[in-house]
Design brief:
- The structure holds two protein chains of two kinds.
- Chain A is of the alpha/beta class.
- Chain A has eleven helices and twelve strands.
- In chain A, a hairpin with a 7-residue loop joins strand 11 and strand 12.
- Chain A starts with 5 loop residues before the first strand and ends in a 6-residue tail after the last strand.
- Chain B has a domain of about 220 residues: 3-Layer(aba) Sandwich (Rossmann fold).
- Chain B is built from nine helices and twelve strands.
- In chain B, the strands form two sheets. Chain B has an eight-stranded mixed sheet with strand order 6-7-8-3-9-10-12-11, with helices on both faces. Chain B has a four-stranded antiparallel sheet with strand order 2-1-4-5, with helices on one face.
- In chain B, strand 11 and strand 12 form a beta hairpin.
- Chain B starts with 20 loop residues before the first strand and ends in an 8-residue tail after the last strand.
- Classes of the chains: A alpha/beta, B alpha/beta.
- The interface between A and B is large, with 42 and 38 residues.
- Bound molecules: adenosine-5'-diphosphate (2 copies), iron/sulfur cluster and magnesium ion (2 copies).
Chain lengths: ~325, ~325
């Protein structure tokens, strides 16, 4: 078996803050093969975006990578000089953020913004070819009349259209991995469905690996092959999406599923998880979920449970001794 | 701008007890920035909307952003004035009432806002925030006021000991509970809730949904529940109105709407819900301006035919009991 495209081992990221050290990512390990979509799901503040930014080498002070390793295409990204990281970014790895307006330059036409990527990373490409590629890319992300639209400024486009442009930028240089951080959270549900279709299509056609960060289990269910559920800076459950959602083992995953009213069974009562997510500057000792957990026993306050494979399905892993 | 056909035929009204709230032909136009003459100079944010809410009933309003949901809520709260149309509250002309009469009626309609951060004054103590409507409308002895506040905090699942603290010491979900405690302080008959759980995390969202359901079960409260989230609406509402570009395109019982959506836009919305297992049938929302005439959905609708582009479809009862504004209902 070949080595996975991406292997993250015991990644730790901290932010210095007036409230103390925020351990935003507290030992995350995961691996991802080419041609797969991995969902990273959890409620706000659990460290999803921080994981994504760490993969792209975007952690800035007051944040720092405090430990662990990120191996991508057989080389370690932690400690890579910024010059080399910049060459990888956009090229082999790229990112799609939640808010397309923050990513796009408001005073440049969308065509020029994409062309800029080629001029920067492929300086020897001919002008004519750049133009062709820009049009192709816009068509690929479903923008009709691409030639004309490439002369539009971001504010002349709808939110969904802008997000398509952002995706075109992320794709421009054929990266091996795209990290999409809540790419549809700001969009209406019908537009969201189209963007998710687009992301799935790219992976199917080009074998691009995708990490899709979302707080929405429905989005994950619809889009991802595998899922990792994060809570308080750690992965508490992971495995094939269908398996994890049909047979959640961790009480947090089960709680998240029970919290959402179901459109197909609206009579089913929602069962909230009591309490709120912990402050990562001052996390609970032991299992980080124990103060909210209905199944907690005295032992849950002692060690931090490790993510271990379940007996029935080794790809399905859970960080709860009561559930394994 | 008004549809050429009467918007709500009288046979659509049943013989049931009088509605608590009844909205008829509501219109709100905003001036388009930068252009100030001609017919093209206005945004019809709300265009000839009619519905009613019965006693103890929860009506949901759904639709994509910009469809006019908040504008309707704000007109009912009298935060903005409609361009046309009228609102009856408990049989009285709600927009005409003023002075003492309005003040008395006003306490019967309360609002819960989307942002639990922006809607609470950070300088106030929780006790004062919750007590404010009671102070304005009733003069209670201090001890009784304290007891009422403690009771309200308990009713929304907060410990009465939080009364002396300030909003910044609370999480989003806790702030939303405080906002709800304040809104139910005067035991209103109607609660207008505009996206009250949209800013909250999933697990906290469920806590607030359970709380709203509990309040509904205990009292005789009616609710207008505005949300872009159809699962939440399916869970909480008795009937649902679907808005598209300021127009009500479907109004139906929740069960019927979700099992047998009649309007092409409602179908597209349901199919787009992640996890619904269906695929979207609508084409991309075009940024092109909607035509001035005809069905507002015609440019996206896979079923659009000749009359769709020229005649505005009126909201009419369909066979299933739902009200649907589509020329092709029954054929598609
Ligand atoms: N620049 C920063 N400075 C200080 N703390 C931060 C910063 N960015 C994120 N955090 C903290 O790190 C934790 C994880 O944040 P984030 O990765 O954004 O979570 P998510 O994307 O899951 O919502 C949170 O507690 C957040 O407050
Ligand atoms: N104060 C205002 N001035 C001008 N246009 C407005 C104003 N408020 C809302 N609108 C417009 O009215 C339409 C409906 O808005 P809104 O009621 O907020 O929709 P929703 O709550 O469904 O997202 C939108 O096109 C919006 O841009
Ligand atoms: S009236 Fe015509 S365009 Fe409008 S929804 Fe019905 S079929 Fe589609
Ligand atoms: Mg995030
Ligand atoms: Mg709104």
């Amino acid at each position: 078996m070949s080595t996975p495209l991406l292997q993250v081992h015991d990644l730790r990221v901290e932010y210095a803050s007036p409230r103390g050290l925020v351990r935003a990512v507290a030992g995350v390990s995961l691996s991802l093969d080419r041609n797969r979509i991995l969902g990273l799901v959890g409620e706000s503040g659990c460290g999803k975006s921080t994981v994504g930014q760490a993969l792209l080498g975007l952690i800035q002070p007051p944040g720092r990578i405090a430990g662990g390793d990120i191996r991508f295409e057989n080389r370690s990204l932690v400690g890579l000089p910024e010059r080399e990281m910049r060459r990888l970014r956009g090229n082999r790895l790229s990112m799609i953020f939640q808010d397309p307006t923050a990513t796009l330059n408001p005073v440049m036409t969308i065509g020029d913004q994409i062309a800029e990527l080629f001029r920067w990373h492929r300086p020897r490409m001919r002008r004519k070819e750049v133009q062709t590629r820009v049009t192709e890319l816009l068509e690929r992300v479903g923008i009709v009349d691409a030639d004309r639209r490439s002369r539009a400024y971001p504010h002349e486009l709808s939110g969904g259209m802008r997000q398509r442009v952002v995706i075109a930028c992320a794709l421009a240089l054929d990266p091996a991995l795209i990290v999409a951080d809540e790419p549809t959270t700001a969009l209406d549900v019908t537009v969201q469905a189209q963007i998710l279709d687009l992301i799935r299509g790219l992976q199917a056609e080009h074998g691009t690996a995708v990490i899709l960060v979302s707080h929405d289990l429905g989005v994950i269910a619809e889009t991802c092959d595998d899922v990792a559920v994060m809570y308080a800076g750690r992965i508490v459950e992971s495995g094939p999406t269908a398996e994890v959602l049909a047979r959640p083992r961790h009480p947090y995953t089960a709680g998240l599923i029970a919290s959402r009213p179901s459109i197909t069974a609206p009579d089913q009562v929602v069962r909230p998880i009591p309490g709120t997510v912990p402050d990562l500057a001052n996390p609970p000792v032991g299992c980080p979920f124990h103060p909210r957990c209905v199944r907690a026993v005295a032992g849950c306050r002692e060690g931090i449970p490790a993510l271990s494979p379940t007996r029935e399905e080794p790809r399905h892993a859970v960080a709860c001794p009561l559930a394994a | 701008m008004l549809s050429p056909v009467p918007s709500l035929p009288d046979q659509a009204r049943t013989e049931s007890p009088p509605d608590l709230l009844s909205v008829k032909g509501l219109v709100k136009h905003y001036a388009l920035p930068g252009r100030w003459f001609g017919r093209a100079g206005v945004i019809p944010a709300v265009d000839d909307v009619s519905f009613s809410i019965g006693s103890r009933e929860t009506l949901g309003l759904v639709g994509e952003s910009g469809s006019g949901k908040s504008t309707i809520g704000r007109m009912i709260m009298r935060l903005i004035r409609p361009t046309a149309g009228n609102i009856l509250f408990d049989g009285q002309d709600w927009l005409a009432s003023s002075g003492e009469e309005f003040r008395r009626a006003r306490r019967r309609v309360q609002m819960v806002f989307q942002s639990p951060y922006a809607s609470l004054d950070p300088r106030w103590r929780i006790a004062d925030i919750v007590a404010e409507p009671l102070r304005t409308h009733q003069s209670l002895p201090a001890a009784e006021l304290r007891d009422r506040v403690a009771g309200l905090l308990q009713a929304v699942g907060l410990d009465p000991s939080v009364a002396d603290r300030h909003p910044h010491q609370f999480s989003g979900g806790q702030r939303q509970r405080i906002g709800i405690a304040r809104a139910i302080a005067l035991e209103p008959d109607l609660l207008v809730a505009d996206e009250p759980v949209s800013a909250l995390d999933v697990s906290v969202q469920a806590q607030i949904l359970a709380l709203l359901q509990d309040i509904k079960a205990r009292g005789r409260l009616s609710m207008l529940f505005i949300s872009h989230d159809l699962s939440v609406v399916a869970y909480l509402c008795d009937r649902v109105g679907v808005l598209y570009r300021g127009r009500l395109v479907e109004l139906a019982g929740t069960r019927s709407l979700f099992h047998a959506p009649g309007h092409p836009y409602t179908r597209a919305l349901l199919a787009a819900i992640p996890g619904s297992g269906q695929r979207c049938e609508a084409s991309a929302p075009s940024s092109a301006a909607v035509s001035e005439t005809g069905c507002a959905y015609a440019s996206r609708c896979p079923h659009a035919r000749e009359p769709c582009r020229t005649i505005v479809p009126a909201l009419r009862p369909s066979g299933s009991g739902a009200l649907i504004a589509c020329h092709r209902v029954g054929e598609i």
